[in-house]
Write a structure and sequence with these properties.
The structure is a single chain. The chain is an alpha/beta fold. It has eight helices and six strands; from the N terminus they run H-H-E-H-E-H-E-H-H-E-E-E-H-H. The protein is 39% helix and 11% strand. A hairpin with a 5-residue loop joins strand 5 (158-160) and strand 6 (166-168). The model has no long low-confidence stretch (mean pLDDT 91). Belongs to the PAPS reductase family. CysH subfamily. Residues 39-189 form the Phosphoadenosine phosphosulphate reductase domain.
Length: 212
């Protein structure tokens, strides 16, 4: 049980939300929230979750942890989505510059490099923890989907962070094809030139949803 949500039976809530539309899941989650946030990294299909939540709560805080290693295309995509949807974005960045880290670690450490965990901690996990500590959300909307990694197949629409924040994944059951339809229906942009240096490989976890 979460101190932030002492009356929530998360197992029952997950059962109640089975078969509900993403819009219905968002609406339900907002009834549980006093200070909700949505996190984004502007990876492919992110405009779907941002549009989905922001159309119900236009002023919601959008947390972007910018590692400093995004592609040019991702930064252009982010600028467009932020402007088109008029998003209330708060950006957190690592405490170390990419230039300093590139020298210290000889570039981006590979997944088998002993420095990779330290790299992930610096560019993603520490800024996320700092953001959650300062923003103090009680509900955290995210774009994770069941078909993305083996770990996520064991999750559900609702879960709790280690600090008791209610994590809500309205698109959990959706596929790329489903989201293609959503983007087309709402005339939303997409961008596939994306690289996450903490994952490197598409089906790896970076630790964000396993440790926080």
């Amino acid at each position: 049980m979460s101190q932030l949500h002492p009356n929530l039976d998360i197992d029952q809530a997950n059962q109640d939300l089975k078969g509900k539309s993403p819009e219905e899941i968002v609406a339900w989650a907002l009834t549980q929230a006093k200070n909700p946030i949505i996190t984004t990294n502007f990876r492919p299909y992110e405009s779907a979750i941002l549009h989905l939540v922001a159309k119900q709560k236009p002023d919601i805080t959008v947390l972007w942890v910018d590692s400093g290693y995004n592609t040019d295309a991702t930064y252009r995509f982010a600028n467009k989505v932020i402007e088109d949807l008029d998003l209330n974005v708060i950006t957190y960045i690592p405490k170390q510059t990419a230039a300093h880290r590139d020298v210290t670690m000889n570039g981006i450490p590979g997944v088998n490099d002993e420095q990779h965990d330290k790299f992930t901690e610096q560019v993603k996990l520490e800024p996320f923890r700092r953001a959650l500590d300062e923003l103090k959300p009680d509900v955290w909307f995210n774009a994770i989907r069941k078909d993305q990694t083996e770990f996520r197949q064991g999750l559900d629409v609702l879960s709790l962070s280690k600090d008791g924040v209610l994590k809500v994944a309205p698109l959990f059951e959706k596929t790329d094809s489903d989201l293609d339809v959503y983007l087309d229906e709402h005339n939303l942009p997409n961008e596939f030139d994306y690289f996450d240096p903490t994952k490197v490989e598409e089906h790896r976890e970076c630790g964000l949803h396993t440790q926080l």
